[in-house]
């Protein structure tokens, strides 16, 4: 037999081990030398060893190895293993002995859990899918939680939702009926997240509750009849409630959304709640070695120092373009904390419309924040440079991206407070990303911010009245700012309220005046802006509703064709206030359609921008056909009602409404 292999070297990589050795001093004078690997899992200090079993994988193989190396994968994390390499030939079996083997003992490192193998749908209704799954085959530690990622199959995979749960099942609520959804699940241990499972697809139902039995069964029939009566009662009460509410505060919609949020979507953590803000930086931002960064040129000046462009090459990854924000020399402790707070905030976000943090450099000077590079810079300057060059659909695409990023932030309970086109960055594919998350930015950084009478600096033109008056900053005040961003985008970077003074802007808004539609702006988009600028913050749409509305407009480009046209109104004059009396007396378009039994056209009206009674009274028969109402009987019914609405309006206003 041969003697033992020599110089056995081990290399541990998480739960894999690579072994290499040299050929033995003596091959036994034969040509048929090969090697076998024995794997033992052991207790502490190499005690109580037992065979590794089937789950461990050897590459290229465990027995009859010709080469002098092997890689062993899928070991358990934090476990002691002893590996023996046996040199064998055709006569080894005659006199096996320990002198033919060499051994090594290693401890594996931590590893994330293996992927979840399968997901089952335990129950499916119109709006809910109840999921369950098994623990991953290799948990590699205690599973702290699972993350379920899901999205509508027909939608862009990048606009997904995440739900976290500590159990192996969850109910995904608030789904659209008869729609296919794709689900992925992953587990998290102290070592981090494992990989997401493969996609699993399930479709929501068209009936309110799962039907058990074959339908001829009398119990089922009874259940369905009782169910229908209950459903009818619910619908009637929902209708009664909805008549008292504005279109954006529908009880059901809100309740659905609330439930959805409280199911476990991640909440943003304010880095200033940490006793030591450096800990927040360590937790949320990756430390990058300065040698991986090449600074190329200065592209701007930020509050804390220069902003540069450059390249980042991390080991094992390809080189990418990055933006580098630097902290200028001579900073105070507070400045360093404030500067790095932006990274602690940004590092918590992961969304295609939120600027992505690559990491920070804090261990040497200058201190730096590294983010993805956005080739086209800030949105306001980019639009001004490209005045009139985009199609309406491209502009709506820009708006959709920003709304989607803001929806993500509001789902995480993060209030931006300074949403404006100057704080959106644009990349080479025209993808817009929300940026500027520093804690002190609203106070110090924004040149637009002005001091208010109550102290504190606020970018007046972009800020909701309640936030200016008593600093009530919420996602609803972010929606107001979003409406201003819509106006900036549709006017290619025009300054909101032109050269009016801040004081005049505050006064005009308080008196009910609003910005008019920019030139060639589709009515539907201007209506959405007006909705964002509702005085009552509860009446403003939620970001989720804005995204849905924009998606509808993109899917139905005809709805964007209707513009104010050659309006008599010069576009630099504010719109007159709408009488609150008039709006509430006439109710919403949805309520009106329901009242005349034409609610089936509700989406056609919304998508085409006929979202207020004032817009509807101008409609002609031709308009009806254009928005997809082809039945002459239905057109007549709606037009007759429109006449009634018009005279009601004239009575309330005491004057003629131009038609
Ligand atoms: O309008 P800009 O070219 O875009 O000028 C400002 C400048 O730095 C000061 O903030 C630009 N900038 C900031 N972050 C980035 C980024 N991630 N990618 C590209 N440019 C950026 C910004």
UniProtKB/TrEMBL annotation:
Keyword Transport attributed: no
Subcellular location: Cell membrane; Early endosome
Boundaries of every Fibronectin type-III domain copy: 1-111, 112-207
UniProt name for this protein: receptor protein-tyrosine kinase
One Gene Ontology term, aspect cellular component: dendrite
EC number of this enzyme: 2.7.10.1
InterPro entries xrefs: Eph_TM, EphA4_SAM, Ephrin_rcpt_TKs, FN3_dom, FN3_sf, Ig-like_fold, Kinase-like_dom_sf, Prot_kinase_dom
Domain of life: Eukaryota
Boundaries of every Protein kinase domain copy: 293-554
Binding site for ATP: 325
Topology versus the membrane: Single-pass type I membrane protein
Reactions accelerated catalytically: L-tyrosyl-[protein] + ATP = O-phospho-L-tyrosyl-[protein] + ADP + H(+)
Coiled coil: none
Residues of the SAM domain: 584-648
Gene3D superfamilies reported for this sequence: Immunoglobulins, Phosphorylase Kinase, domain 1, Transcription Factor, Ets-1, Transferase(Phosphotransferase) domain 1
SUPFAM superfamilies per record: Fibronectin type III, Protein kinase-like (PK-like), SAM/Pointed domain
A single GO molecular function term of this UniProt record: transmembrane-ephrin receptor activity
Entry's transmembrane regions: 220-242
The keyword Membrane is assigned to this record: yes
UniProt KW keywords: ATP-binding, Cell adhesion, Cell membrane, Endosome, Kinase, Membrane, Nucleotide-binding, Phosphoprotein, Receptor, Signal, Transferase, Transmembrane, Transmembrane helix, Tyrosine-protein kinase
